């Protein structure tokens, strides 16, 4: 059983993914992907993790922090290929490797996983959404920022995720046809949705 989650910032996708992983006893791939990619290209994973900010695109921030760690080498052009395209390729390869490993249940959050794993009969693709007003309030509760700052960061995140998916996978990130299940967390919390998603995933697994 594999659950691949696409999500909007502050819609609750990460919380849902973490809860699903605990309930199903599943391996979780989220921030862990940063460490795995960093290890493959020889970057310090602790440094990458420390700079893993919430509202920047994954490939953008990974490339930024790695190049900052080695400015002299980067200027001299002696670094290996750490381009965004290469980072996306490595991310996709890691997700597919873990999906193919067959080590048990797997939950993957973001990084194009619902598109990368489409066509697999063992995979349930889920999109987690909520109205902007709810997402703004959640960000304010979480960070203490102003409403204006929350709106700015959410808009920026949405634009980056849309651009990432369009550029690298040629899809509209919010297209419901990409997913088996779209959940709105405005009125129904992640605890309830986790039960729904797990039940649906088990039906998908039974149909294999």
Overall mean confidence score, pLDDT = 84
Major β-sheet profile: 5 strands, parallel
Helix content: 55-70%
Beta-strand content bin: 5-15%
Apparent shape:
globular
| Cα radius of gyration in angstroms | 17 Å
Based on the coordinates given, report the CATH architecture.
3-Layer(aba) Sandwich
Question: Class by helix and strand content?
Answer: alpha/beta
Number of domains: 1
> What is the CATH homologous superfamily assignment?
P-loop containing nucleotide triphosphate hydrolases
Describe the structure in your own words.
With 208 residues, the chain is an alpha/beta fold. The protein has a single domain, classed as P-loop containing nucleotide triphosphate hydrolases (Rossmann fold, 3-Layer(aba) Sandwich). 57% of the residues lie in helices and 12% in strands. A five-stranded parallel beta sheet has the order 2-3-1-4-5, with helices on both faces. The longest helix is centred in the C-terminal third of the chain and has 23 residues. The protein starts with a strand and ends with a helix.
């Amino acid at each position: 059983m594999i659950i691949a989650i696409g999500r909007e910032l502050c819609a609750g996708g990460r919380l849902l993914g973490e809860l699903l992983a605990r309930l199903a006893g599943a391996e979780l791939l989220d921030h862990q992907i940063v460490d795995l990619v960093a290890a493959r290209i020889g970057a310090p994973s602790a440094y990458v993790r420390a700079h893993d900010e919430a509202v920047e695109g994954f490939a953008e921030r990974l490339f930024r922090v790695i190049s900052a760690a080695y400015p002299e080498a980067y200027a001299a052009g002696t670094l290996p290929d750490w381009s965004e395209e290469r980072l996306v390729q490595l991310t996709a390869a890691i997700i597919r490797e873990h999906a193919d490993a067959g080590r048990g249940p797997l939950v993957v959050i973001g990084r194009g996983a619902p598109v990368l794993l489409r066509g697999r009969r063992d995979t349930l693709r889920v999109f987690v959404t909520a109205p902007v007003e709810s997402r703004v309030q959640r960000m304010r509760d979480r960070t203490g920022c102003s409403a204006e700052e929350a709106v700015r960061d959410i808009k920026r995140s949405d634009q980056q995720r849309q651009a990432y998916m369009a550029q690298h996978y040629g899809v509209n990130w919010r297209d419901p046809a990409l997913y088996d299940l779209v959940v709105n967390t405005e009125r129904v919390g992640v605890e309830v949705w986790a039960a729904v998603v797990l039940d649906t995933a088990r039906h998908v697994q039974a149909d294999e």
